[in-house]
Amino acid sequence: MGLHDERPAKSDEAETTVVSGSAHAEPEREERPKRDVDWTKVRGQITGFLAGLVRWVGLIFAAILVLHVIFTIAGANKDNGIVSFIKEWAEPLTIGFKDLFKNDDVKLNVLINYGVAAIFWLVVSAILAKIIRRIGGSSV
Known about the structure:
Layout: H1 10-15, H2 39-74, H3 81-93, H4 106-136
Helix pairs in contact: 2-3, 2-4
């Protein structure tokens, strides 16, 4: 018996595949079982994200108002870039609270009116976040 007798059978050769022509041939992919999407979980994640976003926006608005109060009471330089930037943003955030209480002391007016506006944003954002979570079915 010679070396030619040790060759694999023809059926083994048929199982090997040769890809010709393309150097970038895609390998065969195994079929994976399809995963069912838990839409309740997805809805809960989206509503949780939106509720968190609303809370953060309310917190940032309140922080801007509080910074304006601090700068005004402390007598910060109005020509400073940070102070003027905060004042420009704080003005529209007071909505209707800017002239809610009138007093002779300007600093007291800013403290009360801008402080009430800051509390308003915190309360409203908390309520809206809770409503969003309830509508979305999120329990957190």
